[in-house]
């Protein structure tokens, strides 16, 4: 993270919120926080005129989103030629209102638009893969064997600028607590949804007596 | 669910898997299971030639996916005119291998392509909204106040056929347990990721002494 203040999220026709504007955030630190809280995004590309949405892992720096995949992957082959949309969503709770109509979901969502750049510089490629690896599996870059030359060549790494991005955050209780439906006497509130890491499951091929390293065990029960 | 055997998932050029074919499933019950396990999808549409991927809730029957949103929502206004791609993803675990290159994610993913139909029939609209509501918040359709005529008119409901769909499921330990990297003596395995419902948080506007109904409390600690 840079130590200088970061510019506000840029407005573009695409990222300007059409509805529920009160949920929109313009502070770049909100984008950083949403991206830092996950490791899986949904990558949207246009293929033969139709949308295709695929889940994939990502790694975020202050100004770049890194995406990767096999060279053979259709979406990544298509992506460098055109605009993509990358969406990262965290569901925080169900909002259970007095009326079905007022039910909703509390969530944090980041959307990033841009034309990805295929990373070919060896140094940036290794650094991008490190960022991507550490986002999903912190500590593994130092613990596991790093990519060799052949593996690097077999990996497509895309860099997407975070210049055109929007963040929406929805939080709080149902909104019908002061309306006529409050008279119905029904319970209303939020049902939180948590993501939690479970106990590590050893590879059956492991020799006996090898325990999981502390950087993995430390994640259990947390997100 | 129908009691007759369901046809296999249809192949189309889009849904045919280009890579990791061993992860592909053709049994329609696998699609049912992936869709039944969630309530949030990522809807991809093409808008002004660019992809847009937005998170939204869905409800699934044996042959139809229902999506809804405000009439004002851009994505749903655009969607009825063209093909959409709806993707539902569940992350089950991180696959921590001996090499960074072999790291991956175990997941279940369904992708559905089609041109959605806007539901205008009042009876189907109500039934679709019930399916959608019960998928995210089972029990609330009977507990909360159902949509009135005005609310129904303000809701856009889209129906997407499940005819063109694919399912990918990735499971199991890392794949480098019998390769040269096994000699490195590193721990390898899976780190499971669980989604768990937390304790209900009452709306601060509730009168004192009103407790959450049993169909909500019963979900706590489960997914």
The DSSP helix count of chain A reads: 6
Radius of gyration of chain A: 21 Å
Task: Assign an overall shape of chain A.
Answer: globular
What is the makeup of the main sheet of chain A? 10 strands, antiparallel
Number of strands of chain A: 11
Name the CATH superfamily classification of chain A: Electron Transport, Fmn-binding Protein, Chain A
**Helices and strands of chain A, in N-to-C order?**
EHEEEHEEEHHHEEEEH
Number of domains of chain A: 1
CATH architecture name of chain A? Roll
> What is the first-to-last residue Cα distance of chain A?
21 Å
- Enter the CATH topology name of chain A: Pnp Oxidase, Chain A
Pfam family, one (chains A, B): Pyridox_ox_2
InterPro entries (chains A, B): Pyridox_Oxase-rel, Split_barrel_FMN-bd
Protein name (chains A, B): Pyridoxamine 5'-phosphate oxidase family protein
Organism (chains A, B): Streptacidiphilus jeojiensis
Kindly describe this structure.
- Chains A, B: This is Pyridoxamine 5'-phosphate oxidase family protein.
- Chains A, B: Pfam families: Pyridox_ox_2 (PF12900).
- 2 copies of one chain form a homodimer.
- Chain A is of the alpha+beta class and 223 residues long.
- Chain A has a single domain (21-192), classed as Pnp Oxidase, Chain A, CATH 2.30.110.
- Helix content of chain A is 19%, strand content 35%.
- Chain A is built from 6 helices and 11 strands.
- Chain A has helices at 28-36, 74-78, 122-136, 140-143, 149-153, 214-217, and strands at 24-25, 40-47, 50-60, 64-70, 84-96, 104-114, 117-118, 155-161, 164-170, 189-197, 201-202.
- In chain A, strands 1, 2, 3, 4, 5, 6, 7, 8, 9 and 10 form a 10-stranded antiparallel β-sheet that branches.
- In chain A, a hairpin with a 2-residue loop joins strand 2 (40-47) and strand 3 (50-60).
- The first copy, chain A, is globular, with a radius of gyration of 21 Å.
């Amino acid at each position: 993270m840079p130590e200088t203040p970061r510019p506000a999220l840029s407005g573009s026709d695409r990222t300007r919120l059409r509805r529920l504007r009160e949920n929109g955030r313009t502070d770049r630190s909100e984008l950083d926080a949403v991206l830092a809280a996950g490791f899986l995004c949904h990558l949207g590309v246009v293929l033969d005129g139709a949308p295709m949405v695929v889940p994939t892992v990502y790694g975020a720096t202050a100004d770049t989103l890194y995406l990767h995949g096999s060279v053979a992957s259709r979406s990544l082959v298509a992506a460098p030629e055109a605009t993509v949309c990358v969406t990262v969503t965290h569901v925080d709770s169900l909002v259970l209102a007095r009326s079905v109509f007022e039910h909703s979901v509390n969530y944090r969502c980041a959307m990033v638009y841009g034309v990805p750049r295929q990373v070919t510089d060896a140094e940036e490629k290794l650094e991008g893969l490190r960022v991507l690896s550490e986002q999903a599996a912190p500590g593994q870059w130092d613990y596991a064997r790093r990519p060799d030359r052949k593996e690097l060549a077999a990996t497509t790494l895309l860099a997407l600028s975070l210049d055109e991005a929007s963040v929406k955050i929805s939080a709080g209780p149902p909104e019908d607590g002061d309306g006529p439906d409050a008279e119905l006497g029904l319970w209303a509130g939020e049902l939180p949804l948590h993501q939690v890491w479970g106990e590590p499951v050893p590879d059956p091929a492991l020799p006996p007596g090898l325990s999981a390293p502390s950087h993995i065990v430390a994640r259990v029960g947390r997100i």
